[in-house]
Amino acid sequence: MPISFDELVDDVMRRRPETIRVFLAFQMRCVGCPIACFHNVADACREHGIDPDTFLSALCACT
Amino acid sequence: MASIDRSLVAHLPLFGGLSQEDLTEVLREARSMRVPRNGAVFEQGADATSFFLLLHGHVRATKTTPTGDQIVVRYVVPGDTFGVAPAIGLQHYPATATAVDDSIVLAWPSAAWPRLVARFPSLAANTLQTVGQRLQETHARVIEMSTQQVEQRIAHALLRLANQAGRKLDHGVQIDFPISRQDIAQMTGTTLHTVSRILSAWEQLGLVESGRQKIVLREPHKIVLLAEQTSDTAASRS
Predict the structure, then answer these.
(1) Which end of chain A is more exposed for a tag (fewer CB within 10 A), N or C?
(2) Which residues of chain B make contact with A8, given a CB cutoff of 8 A?
(3) B140: closest CA of chain A, how far (Å)
(4) Which A-chain residues 12-51 have CB contacts (< 8 A) with chain B?
(5) Are residues A37 and B225, on separate chains, in Cβ contact within 8 Å?
(6) ipTM higher than 0.90?
(7) Mean pLDDT score, B185-202
């Protein structure tokens, strides 16, 4: 199943641990974050001021 | 008494590694109890006659010091064991357990513990894991108490509660059981006055929304940033 904007970041990292690298590369704080189970990919991009399309393609590219 | 539905509890960490027959055996000795909101499951210092598993609701564990201060030790969420005094060699309950919501608990007689563990060693191994996790949480709190400013400790406490018992709303993450500013003060080693001051400031900034016994993290990400700032940056900001 491909990664989508509305998937929770906690689920993304659990389901595909190889994506953790991408979160780190974008300097996002989601890894180990207590609220990773409440924010989806779109929320996380908004909070970190990151372009969601660029980020989603990077996530998909690494899996 | 009606027997307890195995399927309700089979997935819980305590019962990992047990077969269906084993689980039936373990549950045979348990009885389920309803505890109304604000009812005590057990009191600190009382004879530890039973141990418990929370099925539904929330339970607060508090300790009272000889000088009368009350400290919130932890919140018990569904699936957690609590009051497992016999497993850690205690004859008396080390804390008071109070339901903060209408709750349902399973209770086993303490005398059953050694017998159950002898028959089903995975119960002991699973309990050791839980005790280990709680020890880690306690270590984290000791470090917070020793190294962090009160603002960060409050941020950490809110995030821990949200992570453990949060519910996602459109406008944030709500801590899904009744919790007061006094409770937060007792979790973070500070006063009600300080918690009120800090939460009111955060409310003005739109970070949280706190009503009577209800807290919503409106900007959980910003609270993470607050919790993680080093004391140097905190000092330079103030």
Answers:
(1) N
(2) none
(3) 14
(4) 29, 33-35, 37-39, 43, 47
(5) no
(6) no
(7) 93
Question: pLDDT tens-digit profile of B131-176?
Answer: 999 999 899 889 888 888 999 999 999 999 999 889 999 999 999 8
Q: Residue A41 corresponds to which tokens in the numbers above?
A: 């990919």
In angstroms, rounded to a whole number, what is the distance separating the alpha carbons of residues B133 and B135?
5
Residue A4: CA count within 13 A, CB half-sphere: 3
pLDDT score recorded for residue B141: 87
Report DSSP letters for A35-49, one per residue: TTTT-BHHHHHHHHT
Tell me the domains of chain B and their CATH numbers: 6-144 (2.60.120.10), 149-237 (1.10.10.10)
pTM of the model: 0.74
Residue B13, CA distances (Å) to B73, B74, B119, B191 in order: 21, 18, 18, 36
Place of tokens 């996380």: A44
Domain boundaries, chain A: 9-62
B162 in contact with chain A, both atoms CB, cutoff 8 A: yes
Amino acid found at B45: G
